[in-house]
Structures are given as C-alpha cells and as structure tokens.
Design a protein that fits this description.
The protein is α+β, with helices and mostly antiparallel strands. Helices cover 30% and strands 25% of the residues. The protein folds into three domains: 222 residues, Aldehyde oxidase/xanthine dehydrogenase, molybdopterin binding domain (Aldehyde Oxidoreductase, domain 4), CATH 3.30.365; 152 residues, 2-Layer Sandwich (Aldehyde Oxidoreductase, domain 4); 325 residues, Aldehyde Oxidoreductase, domain 4 (2-Layer Sandwich). The strands form eight sheets. The chain has a seven-stranded mixed β-sheet with strand order 11-12-9-19-16-17-18, sandwiched between helices. It has a five-stranded mixed β-sheet with strand order 1-2-3-4-5. Helix 5 packs across helix 6 and helix 12 runs parallel beside helix 13. It is globular and about 80 Å long.
Amino acid sequence: MYGQIDLSHLRSHIRSRFASEALSVDRRSFVRLALGTGAGLVIGGWLPATPARAEAAAQASATDGIFAPFVLITPDNVVTVLIKHQDMGQGNATGLATLVADELDAAWGQVKAEFAPADAKLYANTAFGIQGTGGSTAIANSYEQYRKAGAAARAMIVAAAAKRWSVAADSVKIENGVVSSGNHKATLGELAKEAAAVAVPADPTLKTPEQFTYIGKSFPRLDSVAKTTGAKIYTQDVQLPDMLVATLARPPKFGGTVKSVDDKAARAVKGVVDVVTTSRGVAVLATSTYAAIKARDQLAVTWDDSKAETRSTEALISDYHALADKPGLVARKEGDAEAALAKADKVIEATYIFPYLAHAPMEPMNCVLQFKDGRATMWTGSQLQTVDQGVTAAIFGIKPEDVTINTLWAGGSFGRRGVYDSDYIAETAEIVKVTGRSEPIKLVWTREDDIKGGYYRPVYVHKVRVGLDKDGGIAGWHHRIVGQSIITGTAFESALVKDGIDGTSVEGVSDTPYAIPNMQVELHTTKAGPRPLWWRSVGHTHTAYVMETLIDEIAAVTGKDPVAFRLSLLEKHPRHVGVLKLAAEKAGWGTPPAEGVFRGVAVHESFQSFVAEVAEVRIVDGKPKVERVVAAVDCGIAVNPDNIKAQVEGGVGFGLGAVLHSKITLKDGVVEQGNFDGYEVLRMNEMPHVEVHLVPSAQPPTGIGEPGVPPIGPAVANAVALGTGQRVRVLPFADGLKLG
C-alpha cells in the first residue's frame, strides 16, 4: 500500500514478469517498421513469448514474440539508437549505441542516443522481465540484442544498395557510414527508405571479435560534451508553461503521520498557490522553487508518532546483537560447522557492525507530472519505468498504458531512483491528484530531504566464528547475519526471497567461492523504521568486507601470504584467480612498498564480474590515507575499456567514502544528518590514484557499474591492520579505528 492506494495489482504484474527465468534474445528473426513514407528504417528484435509474456504476446502482431525497435536510420543520415536503460552516469547510452554502430559500420559521428519510451512490452530488461535498469545489467542483458539490431540494419542496407546498383550483395561494403560497390557510393540515410522494403534476415550474421571497429576500443562518450557544457537536460531543468513547484514536509520520524497543520504563515509567502495534506506529509505549491522551500519552512505541523520508529541507533544495534546470539534461518549448510568448531585447534570470533548509508546522488529526487484528460505524463530520470507507471496508474485509477514517462538523464542514483514503491513519483502523483490541478507540477527534493528521507542501505550486524585446524587450515565457519530485508514486502519478493531468506542479505557469503568445509550461514530479518533499499552493489557492500577481512586475518594468524592463501582457496575459480594474480602483479605485491606504506588486498565477485584490488595506505595523523589502488577486472568483453575504468575508479571513490566516513544515525527515531557536513563522503583531496587493468576475455559482458565497490573497503582495512595492528569491525573507520 502507498498511503490508501492499493498497489497489489502492480505486485502481481511484476511477479508475473519474474515468473520465468531471465529471457534470452530469440535468434530467429528481426523485423523492420517504416515510420511513414520516406521516414526511414526502424530495426528491432523479437523477444521470445513465454508464460510471463502471455498478455503482451497476445497483443503482438506475431504469435511468437514482441516487436521492440532499437535503431532508427533517417534520410538525414542520422542513426538514432533507442536506449531502453536509464543512464545515470554509468555510460550505458554510449555502450548500447556502440554495439549498434559496430555491427552497422556507421560513422561514430552520425550516431546519437535517445531514451526509449516507457513500455515494458517493447523494452523489457531481459534479466528482469520489466522495463528497468539495475543490477549492473544494462550492457550484459542487451549485448546480443543491440548487436543483432545493428547487424539486421546493415544486411538490409546492403540488400537495398545491391538492388539499386544491380550488383551482387557480396560486392557491397559499408565503412565508416559509407556504402559502396565499385564506383557506386551512398550514405546510410540515402538508402534507408529502400532498405525498409527489404526482406528481414532471419538470423543476421554478427561480427567476430577480430572484426570489431568500436567494441573493445576507448573513445569519448556521447554525453560528455553536453554534460560538460551544461546542455544536458535533467529533471530539475524542466520548465513547462504554467508549471508549479512543490515541496513536501515529511514526518521527521519514520512511520509518523500528519495530526494537524497550521499553514497560515506558509500561505502568506509570495508565490505560494496552495497547501495540501497528503498521505506522506504536507505539500506546498508555488510559482518558484525558492517560494516553495521558504513556505514549507513556515509550516507548523503537529505529527502523530504513535506508530513511528522511536529507537536511537544504539538501541537498534543492541537489539541486533541480541538476535545475533540466537539461531536464525539457514541460508547455507555444508557439513557440521558446530562440530568442526568444537574440535578446532583455534577459533577466531568476530562481530561486525555496518551503519545505514544514504545514496546521496548529486541530483536529489524530483519529478514533473501532469494529469490531464484522463492521462498522466511525467518527466523524470526514471530507473524502473514499469514500476513508476504502475504506481502512478494506481493513484489516478487509470491503466499503466495511460501513463507516459519521458525518461530524462539522471544525475546519479546508486540505487535510489530504482525504488520498489516509486516513492518520489508517488508523492508527485498524489499531490497532483489531491490538488486536482491540470497544469504540470514539479516536486523538488532538497539535499536535506534526500539525506533524511530514508531508503538507506540497511544496518547489518555479522557474528562469525571460524575454526582453524592444527595446520592453519579452515576447519569450520559459522556466520550469522542480522538486518532488514530490502526485498520482503515489495513486488519483487516472490522472485528474490526464498524460504524467508532475502538473497540480497546473504549474497557474497552464502555463495562464497572459497573452499570452506563445514560452513553454515544464518540470517535474522529485522524490522525498523527507515526503509531499506539497494545501495550500489547491494548485499556485497557488507558481505565482501566481512569475508575478505576475515580471510586476511586467517592468513595473518597462520603466517601465510594473503595473496597465496586466497589462491589456495580459489583453485576451482579461475576468473577469481586471474584478477587476483593480475592485481598483485601490477601492484608489485612481491616487492616492499615505500617506507610507511602498507598494502592490503581483496577479491570479490558481484554481478558476474570479478574484481581484485590492492590498496596502498599510509597512516597520517592517526588516520588512514589511501594513496594508491590497483584494480584488476574481468567483466567479459570490454565494450568500451575507458568507460569500464571510469566505473571502477568511481566505485573505488564511492566505496572508500562509505568505509572511511559515511553513516546515517538516529536519535529517538530522527535522522541526525542533513547534508554533506554531517553525512560525509569522500573529498577530492582524499581520492587515491587508481590504476585499472582489464583481463582480456571473450566471455559476454557482465556488470561493471557496481563491482568496483565491494573490494575497496576490505583492501583498505587489511592494509590498516598491517599498519596499526587493528582489525576494523565497526564501520565507518571514523568510528571503528581508534588511534592516538
């Protein structure tokens, strides 16, 4: 439920989409669509019909799938690639355009990218079954799909050229956007209309890696110049005729509601148009952002906290500690951990505490929405278009297809815009509905709204006991995790929660690649006021830290080299071994570091990608100073190596800020932080030099937006342990490391 809005139909819709396994692209056919006489050529792929797609397939023009256009070639010689995934800075718009351009042999300068319409029947994420971006899936799930679209377009252009010039098709070539055969030449755009009449190849031939023109090469992103010059349009930039700006006063305690409000002072602010109460707070509508914020500050709201969270962080963590001492649901059981621990020669016991973390993207949440003539139209950086459509439709009592989403570029997300109940979208829709206005309304979140607004990476407590045998080998491992479930109670529950276990709470531990006998992993799922949400790399944010610092501690206790010890436990996992060896080699692991510098290492798999990182750390004035990070990455074929390196560099900075500084704390249920002065992130002067090395691979691309984050924390912690003798088990380091 969102307030009094029943969203059960949306939950059923999403669950049905998840009912089948991840979808693969049908190899049989590609089709084209002419957008009117002389408009050009649109190429798309067919997705296979499955039980989960029964409704959509019934509406399709064919019996075996759904038409999804991806490429438009127009007579003006522009190749437009329709991007079905949100680009929040991770560069997938360039990546997907690259796939099409390479197979089409277009000139890079004629290629542009535009976001596809919001329509899950056409643009579903083949990993999710709904339209949305997340889990580092954008390139991974679209790699073959977009390449086939480009290859089909190329084949049709070649056929059209052969017919026009009365030559054999195998004499026609395309290079850098120019089609030629002997003395004949034409552009892609000049042949687009004729190509639209050509029979579609049943199975277009894809290039082999040695034939790639763009894939595997580094070149500037399509969005770089526009972002640098300020020309790129974000939601905050949207200005529409008669548009009003809204701000929302939300309960300071999670679960609180409005008891009463005195809005006299707020209504007196120049520019204020209306003040209304919604299920989530009190909204102020004004003719400008300044007036809306100023008036909101003048509201006198009395809150009903009878059902609100009132615990402080200390009390909440104390409750978690109590649960950590009790048996939980078993997520993994191999052998007999308790018996092995009882017989162990030595037992290491460790308890870890991880705080709430905010996403804090540079562009806080915002949405522009207009409801008119029974239809809703919004402009926003939508990350889960299907969910946003469903939530909006439920609030207005209309069909999802009557909700149009104009997806805009987003100024970061890290998971925040992909929220399961579309909170800021729903807030906007409810304000529009309550006011009954037909003009567009823009809801604006301030930075303080964002930091205090909930949807955090949850608090977690890990309690671990590891038994070692007389030879220093691992004899048994008992691991108990306590924390909120991100998935339980959402539309994604049936797909991702099994037997009460939220897979995102235990990933990285329950599926560890290390050869550990007698391992038992347990989970306690808790409830608390702050709303949990996936945060860049999700469960791996805490599980990688625990696993990699404990593996390092075991190596230290038994007198083994940390890299060699890991390699001995990863003999059956060559891709882990590959990145670990490469990172160690490039970091000079076998040579002494500079005086006063300590090296730490970590290796972790997330989103089917493998990353090892070596951190070089110096202790300065009682604090760790990370000077250098060497990362090795295996994410399959590197579509754009430079962008991969940028993502890993960003992941290092993002993760480093979290482990060193960041935390959200509660005082009697109220968030204590409000901006970057309280919620500290990495400062520019703290960013280390980062080297990224890619493992050559012929494997399909896997995720890269998130995998750079998990290893950085433990790599730094392991270096700090060498330099200080302290194993940091309470994060951030500002709380857990005590020096001087």
